[in-house]
Amino acid sequence: SVLFLESSNPMIRLTDTDNNAYSSIGGESGFLYLYTNSSSRDVIFRGSQEVARITGDGLLGIGTPNPGIPFHVYHATTNELARFQSGDASCYITFGDSDSHATSTNRPLLGAKGNSMFFQTGGTERLRIDNGGRIGLGIANPDDYFSSYNRVVMGRTNDTGGMTIVSSTTSGGYISFADGTSGNQAYRGMIAYQHSGDYMTFGTDGGLERLRITSGGQVRIANTTETVSAGADDLVVGTTSGERGITILSGASSTGNIYFGDTDTSGVENRMGSIRYVHNGNYMRFSTNGNQEK
């Protein structure tokens, strides 16, 4: 040993005679202490220049002489300012506050595993972003799902899954389908729920409304508010301009059918009246009272 100090609290004191400030290096119970005589005095680590600083009030700055938070890192040109690496299968940072009594295994954490990033709460993984950019919400393996539909996979494999879009009572909730960012390329297709009227719409060709389901369950295709008979408004197709219609396609040896029923049983009551086109004979049938052709 070049220098050996022995006492119950050995200490080396360094005093600046210009302003009577001092700092000390001491040992106690096997620990090494660095002291200053004021909370306004800092402990500075230098190489060819200052590299780190611990302020008198306990803030650590790396690359900055003025740390503003307990741990403050700065570099003028390097973007990667910290690296956490584990020799095990995963690496993570845990979080806790003054009200947290969680154990180390179920604290909220942010981690990396197999080149993927994951977020965990309550001891269970909740979100994962894998190395292909796929997102799993409640799903740890989004890449295992069909490749055309696995950019975002959400749900629970042991229970029901779902998503809720919340909007104000006078606004709408939207799902848009885009093929670009300019103009209506950003919303070529759209599914919307309008809370002010409690109806759902489906839009195409720049979000133009093509189908509406009203709050009463009526379906409107290619129209929105046209007035029709209240007894025949469950399905309204077309508008008051141009040619509109409905086509029923069937096989060459089959029939196209429209049924009129008054019960939901499996008997003839569910088809008391009918309009049928028989393709293999190319004729139309009109029936009433169950199946009596007229």
The Cα radius of gyration reads 37 Å
Cross-sheet strand order for the largest sheet? 8-9-10-11-12-13
Distance between the termini: 118 Å
Low-confidence stretches: none
Description:
It is built from no helices and 23 strands. The chain is mostly beta strands and about 290 residues long. The protein has a six-stranded mixed β-sheet with strand order 8-9-10-11-12-13, with no helix packed on it. Strand 22 (about 285-290) and strand 23 (about 290-294) form a beta hairpin. The chain starts with 10 loop residues before the first strand and ends with a strand. The model has no long low-confidence stretch (mean pLDDT about 90).
List keywords for this structure.
mainly beta, 23 strands, 38% strand, elongated
Any chance you could write out the topology, listing elements then pairs?
Elements: E1 11-16, E2 21-28, E3 31-36, E4 43-46, E5 50-54, E6 60-62, E7 71-73, E8 90-94, E9 109-113, E10 116-121, E11 124-129, E12 135-137, E13 152-154, E14 172-177, E15 189-194, E16 199-204, E17 208-213, E18 219-221, E19 235-237, E20 255-260, E21 273-278, E22 283-288, E23 292-293
Parallel strand pairs: 6-7, 12-13, 18-19
Antiparallel strand pairs: 1-2, 2-3, 4-5, 5-6, 8-9, 9-10, 10-11, 11-12, 14-15, 15-16, 16-17, 17-18, 20-21, 21-22, 22-23
Quick overview of this protein structure:
The chain is mainly β and 294 residues long. It contains no helices and 23 strands. The radius of gyration is 37 Å and the shape is elongated.
